[in-house]
Task: structure prediction
Amino acid sequence: MFDIIGDAIKKIRTFISKQTIEENNLEKKLTIQKVTSSILGYEVSRLLLFIIKLFIAIATSILFNIYLQKSLFIGFEINMREIDVRVFEFQQSIFSGFLILLIVFIFLWSLTGKFVLTTVFYSVAMSLLVFANNQKVELRQEPVFPEELQMIGQSQELLEMIDSKYIALGINILIMAVLSTIIYYFLVRKVILGKYTTKLGLRRIQIKHSIGTYIYLVGRFFAIVASGYILYFSYNFNDSPKVGELLKTDKSQLVGYNQLLNYRVNGFVTGFLYNMPVKPMAVIPEYSQEKMKEIEVKYLETASEINQTRVTNFSDTKLVYILSESLFNPSKVAMLEMDYSPLTEIDKVMQQSHSGKMLSTNLGGGTANTEYAALTGLSMANFQPQISSAYISFAHSQANDGTVVNFYKNGNQDKSQAVAIHPYSPRLYKRIDVFKNFGFDEFLYEGNLTYTDTHNGVNITDESAYLETLDELKKDQVGFIQLTTMQNHLPYGTEFIDRRTQEEPGLNLEDEDKVTFNNYLDRIKATDEATKNFLDQIELMDEDVTVLLYGDHIPGFMSKYADKMSDFEKFGTDFFIYSNHGRSQSVDFPIVSPIFFTNLVAQQNNAKISAYYAVLEELFKHIQAYSREVYYVDGQAKTYDELDDQTKEILEDYKLVQYDLTSGKEYLSDSFFKVTSK
Result:
């Protein structure tokens, strides 16, 4: 009886146990199905989120590509009449640029793995580029170049040149970017993925090892490699036909002589890539050691003949080169209708010395390039169009034998020291490295100057800069000084404490520029007075001193009126060469390139020159100024084809010398750069 009951209980227990196991197995199956369903839903949601992200990336790239193109026009208004190209070709260039911008976005996204971080960084960087490009177009009629991105490290100095209203706008854009990030993260990402990351307590380990994650990692690696490969060849755009094919760009259509037009016609991105790093000068087929030896012998003989009639050396006289920032005489511009000159004292000096118009290397900017040409005798017109700044690109490491400084290093040892003065930050345009390479013994700049007075706290005055220069001139060992002033640099939104001019009626300027113009007049009038006082002090010095003063370009705000000005008005600035003790000679030059300044100084002081400057001396007899497209002979503009054979020969000799110094193997010997005489 008990055995029967015991067997029954065992059977019941076995049955219950089997039922429990079956129920547990069923529950597990259901759980697995639910987990699988959740993981599948999670992966589908991730795919949906990826598509949304990709759409945002594409939309963002399209938007910034459009605004980069619009930033090439004043007021962000595209004017097709300013572009000599069909609408279809223009639209094609816009689309091509979008692809590169999208690849940049994908590369950053793949590299960081953080979409939000990439979007914010990309948007801020592109917004700054759009703003900087439009500002440069308005002020200088040229776009931003790749090499100028190196100046990001000088953000503090750059911000000081920007109107405060634009800084406020930038802060507002940054706030909007932060708010957009918050909206994306909490409303988009959480809504799409949130329920799948919490449902059934889905563990992170299951998500981490899901097949979608592996696909994501492989895809991300591929994206880094592919986009990085394309960007590498984009960096080498000028040497790689592959990128040109991607952009559907015929490089023969690139406009090297007018970079703004180049960017406008081919699109910002293509124009930007066209200006990626290249050698300073294109290869000259005739360049060889034998050819350079022939040129050296030829001009050593020429220098000896010139020096037979000259009785002084450069180092017998102390020499000051003054690049006067944004100095030009507005009374010589017809559209301004001024009936008086704000530079009366400078006008008097010009009437009694070597003086005239200098052909500026840039419109409304390019100070460092003009400074470079004056110090080295090397023409920016001979460099490849992609070289927007010699200082940034290569001047800090180029051969320096031809600089005017060498006349003092190789001359009178009592006046062998050279000093550079720039009352602003030394970091812009790599001036510390450049001046060191050029042989300057000391560089005085904002931070180590004795005189630092400003007007309304804007820029250090010319009066202070002149006082600093006088102190250096009094030092026996100092023979040469390069002064680059800052008083007349933008911004022009502040007035001097004591206004020196009255409002100008009848100016053909926009209302917003009239106030700017009057503030500018205040500043150049102060320059005029300070220059007179400076030269009065020079005249009282016992030692012979020669001063070359020149304006580097017209002020940036005048660039927008370039189409209403003649070439001489928009590219011509005043210069003079003054020598104390009655040694100045009155000679007027219609137009002169800054590469010839040292030769003109030598002529006025009757100083001997090297074979290098003999090349420039001979060239000056035939061409007094030139740009990439125009050559000025006795004040008349000519094309290259209109030059005679002798002029072309000397010009080609000069280009070969410049190539040897900046892009070649430096075949020319030291003798070529030293003063010789029979």
